[in-house]
Each structure stands twice: as C-alpha cells, then as structure tokens.
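Readers outside the structure-tokenisation community will struggle with the description of the input data as it stands. Showing the layout once, in full, would remove most of the difficulty. For illustration, here is how one protein appears when written out as sequence plus structure tokens:
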Amino acid sequence: MHRGNWFRILLCLAVLGSTSGCIGAVDRAEFEDRIRARGGGLVSALPQAAIAALAERTGAEDPDVNVMLLTAPNSTQFRLVVNNQPAQVTSFLADRDFTAREPTVHLRVRPPGLSRVLDDYSFTLGDLSAPRPVRVSSFDDLDSENFTISEVPGLSRIEDIVGTARARSEIPDSQVTAILVCRFGRDIRIVANVASARSEVVAEFDYTGVFLRAQQV
C-alpha cells in the first residue's frame, strides 16, 4: 500500500472519534496533533496490517514472534521502560534506534520450519522491510520465549489499551509512546509506555488486553 493511502487511512482513524466521517480539510499539522492525542497513530489496524504483510511474505498463517513493538512518532528520542525486563527484550532493544516519523511495528520472528533462526522486520505506512538476520545464542530458548499471534487477542484492542493506559497513568497531557508485546515467563503481556515532559508510567495488560497494573518509573 502506498504512503499516501496510509496517510489517508490514519487521518480517518484520527478524526473518526470526533467527527462523523473522514474529511479532507485537515492539514498535516492538525492531523499529527490528533493522532498524538489518540496514541500517536497506535491503532488496531496497524499491527493487523503488519501481521498480514508478514504472513504473506513468510507463508506463516500464524506468525511465530519473539518480540513485537509498536512505536509512535511522538518523541524525538525513543525510550522504553519495562519492569522485570525479559532477556529477549534486552536483546531486541540493544543498539537500535526506534525513533520514527510514522507509526511503526517492529517484529522479531522465527521463520516457518527454522527452529533456531530469528529475523527482524519493520512495518511502516504499508511497507514491510526486508528481513534482517538476528544472531541467536545457544542459551536462547526460543520455544519458551516465542508466542504466536493467535495467542494475543488483545492486539485487536489497541485503542482501548491506549485509552486505559493514559487514564490509569493519571499523567496530564500524556502520550503512549510505545506498546510492547512479549512473554514474561509463561505469561504473554502487553506493556504500554505512557510519558509526558514530566513523568512516565508503565501500564501492563494481559494477553487479552485486560488492564493489570500501572507503575510510575
């Protein structure tokens, strides 16, 4: 899908909450203000489109994922805080720049039929990147770290997660800068990073998108 088409889709998503339809009179600056207010463009359609593109590219009907990260273009310097951070997240975040001008999905996945292989992808404005090989250590237990997309129905509730995270954070003028999906031991959690110029909170949800807790960091 072309960049222009994705801009129009995100514009519709940004204004649907406050208007009866998608109008063409909203300029770029106002559009960016609105998507920031609604989670920086982090909506359910974003991971769904990324997963569909990944499935088409790899042939995996239910992609096997190590880490998924949704980033919003609402901070000049990306920062993510994770309580009890799993080893696979530490590896995923190491020495990488996640700053982006557009809402982006970052995925670390295991290709079908390859038990000890991981590839990184990014998905922005309808474009899925080429795979980037990841070094896998002999100590990495991919079977216990990975999850399939079908195990995370909460990915269809991103708007609710963004709204709940902001409300529970109780931070004025807050923004959700990132949403992380990964395993914490046997559990799959969805973690939202909520930030303002003065404060930052981590809001945790279970795999279905049900709120668990919020903690200032």
Summary: Confidence is low (pLDDT under 50) at residues 11-24. Residues 3-16 form the longest helix (14 residues).
